[in-house]
Every structure is written in C-alpha cells, then in structure tokens.
Amino acid sequence: MTKIRKAVLPVAGLGTRVLPATKAIPKEMMPVVDRPALQYVVEEAREAGIEHFVFVTGRNKGAIEDYFDRAYELESTLRDKNKIEILEKLTAELPAAGSTSFVRQQSPLGLGHAIWCARDVIGREPFAILLPDVLVKAKKSCLAQMVDAYNEVGGNIIAVDEVPMERVSSYGVIAPKVAGATGDLVEMKGMVEKPPQSEAPSNLKITGRYILQPEIMDLLSDQAAGAGGEIQLTDAMARLMGEQSFHAFKYKGKDYDCGSKYGYFEAVVAYAMDHPEISGEARELIKKVSSDA
Ligand code: G1P
Q1: What is the domain count for the chain?
Q2: Closest among 44, 59, 57 to 7, alpha carbons compared
Q3: By residue range, what is the domain housing residue 182?
Q4: Residue 206 is part of a domain; what is its CATH number?
Q5: Ligand 1 centroid vs 208 CA: distance in angstroms?
Q6: Which residues pair with 175 in a beta bridge?
C-alpha cells in the first residue's frame, strides 16, 4: 500500500459564520484555548504520518503562512529571558522547513476547486484531506485511525458520523452499499452533497477527513458546479465511485464545527476541560457556571 505522505488543508474560506472575528483573522487561526484551531488539525495529520502539508489559501490568509514559519525575534527574546521550555515547545510544533506548501485558490469556486488547486503538489499518489473547520477530538487521531483502515482495504476512505435526519441537508451524505450495514468500515455505493432530508440516502454525514486516490484530481478538473453553485468534492467522488472502491469509516472521537459560533464555543470548552494546565480549573468553572445559571 502506498504510504499517505501528503495532506491538503483548504483554508481559503471567508469564515462568514464567525464574523466579525474573521474580519481581522483567518477563522483557522482562532484560538482554541492556547493554539489556533489549525494547529490541532496539523497535529492530527502528523500523528497519522503526514510529512507534507499543502495549504490552499486565499486573500487575507497571510497569518497562516507566518504562523508556520520561524519567529526569530520572539525566539531570541524568549532565549534572552531564559524561557527555554516555552521556546522549545514553540519550535517543536513547527513543521520542518520545506514540508509546507501554500497554493492560492484565487476564486471561491467551492471545495472541489480548492482541492484541485493542490494537484501539482500532490502529484500521482494517494493523499489525505482535512477540512480545518472541523476539529476531531479523539484518543488516536481521526486521520491516524483512517490510515489504519486504509492499510486494510486501500482505495478511498471517507470519515463519517451519524447526524439527526433534520440536519443532513448541511452535509455531504453517504449511501452504504448494504442499507443499515454495521461496523466501522462500510462499503459505499453513492454520496450526495447537502440533500434535502427527504432525499438523503442515510443519516451518515461526511465529517471532513478523506483519504483519496490521485484520480480524483482528473475528475475535479472538469467537475461541473453542484450544490450551492459550487464545484463540489462530493460530486467528483461520486463519479470516481464507479471506478474505485470507497469505504465510509466511522471513527472513534467527537467532531466540532469551528466554522460556526456554537461549534467553536463547544470546542473551546471541550479542549479546556482536557488541557494539561487548566483542566481542573476549567471543570470547576463549568460546574460553577451551570449551578449559578
Ligand atoms: C463540506 C463538504 C461536506 C461535508 C462538510 C463537513 O461542506 O462539502 O460534504 O459534510 O464539509 O463539515 P461545507 O461545510 O464546506 O459546506
């Protein structure tokens, strides 16, 4: 099985659901406790063995590129002040030189188009996609679980999770080959982007983590616009399904949609409650706030 070495992280979105904060900072840089949401996603990918990160960016996203660079003034100030522990942590989290690429999407034509913009950097090898709006809190990283599944069955692996039927129209939804199939890894026969509830083939939403074969790029190159007038990754995957195997993977973990106000708040609370420095205080605070309310 070809190793999954590269991951695409589409970060060109405007973040309209969390305005006005995103007027000045990219939504991916909003802090969840003490680090940008995007850092958690990079760590998830790193735990899965990803060696190269391809960020698909847009205008006003310069902060992301700077974040993944050395900060010499800051580092030298920390060194002068003998704050060595903080300094070491800061540099350890940085991807190695040459292991990041930044490509511009140029026009907001949809997720499928964003992924296609990474085609030259990806080349002809299977790769991962992580949508950084979504944080998945898990013991073993969601993508690492998917890589294990990929090593078993190969092909294309899509992370899915159950949602209440009344929310399916906000997501890509998959159709299992065998209706009601159980188990973590389920063969698929179709998928549809943001279907009306009455047309949804299941209640399994696409979470925003994918392992895909490089042929998806060929299909994305001529993919017509779909739901919302955008070029949809889901539509290109549905076409590829005629030629390649697709499995839906039910990961162990909980996902948070940091692109929405409530999801972001939920993530901050959940990560604070488990943070090694403040978990005790955070848990006390939550108890206090709920008993005061
Ligand atoms: C995208 C995908 C969708 C998926 C969702 C997960 O939609 O197109 O299939 O279910 O992410 O968050 P978006 O949220 O960008 O509209």
Answers
A1: 1
A2: 44
A3: 6-292
A4: 3.90.550.10
A5: 6
A6: 190
Q: What is the pLDDT of residue 122?
A: 98
C-alpha closest to that of 246 among 198, 292, 191, 291: 191
Three-state DSSP class for residue 235:
helix
Residue nearest to atom 14 of ligand 1 (CA): 171
Residue 191: CB within 6 Å of ligand 1?
Answer: no
Q: Is the pTM of this model over 0.90?
A: yes
234: part of which helix (H) or strand (E)?
helix 233-240
Least confident of 21-25, 55-59, 190-194: 21-25
Distance 70 CA to ligand 1 centre (A): 32
Residue 105 lies in a domain: yes
How many angstroms separate the alpha carbon of residue 192 from the centre of ligand 1? 11
Interval between CA 278 and ligand 1 midpoint (Å) = 32
Q: Is the CB of 131 under 6 A from ligand 1?
A: yes
Mean pLDDT of 88-116: 93
Distance of alpha carbon 168 from alpha carbon 153, whole angstroms: 27
Whether 1 is in a domain gets the answer: no
Q: What is the mean pLDDT of the chain?
A: 94
Instruction: Judge if the beta carbon of residue 134 lies within 6 A of ligand 1.
Output: yes
Query: Six-digit token pair at 149?
Result: 């599944």
Beta strands in the chain (DSSP E): 6-10, 31-32, 35-36, 52-57, 100-104, 127-130, 134-137, 156-162, 172-176, 185-193, 204-212, 246-250, 254-257
Judged against a pLDDT cut of 90, whether residue 132 lies above it is answered with yes
Q: What is the crossing angle of helices 279-292 and 261-273, to 10°?
A: 130
Candidates 154, 174, 167, 149; CA nearest to 249 is 149
DSSP 8-state symbol, 259: T
Please report, for residues 58, 132, 159, 160, the alpha-carbon distance to residue 168 in angstroms, rounded to integers and kept in the order given: 28, 20, 15, 12
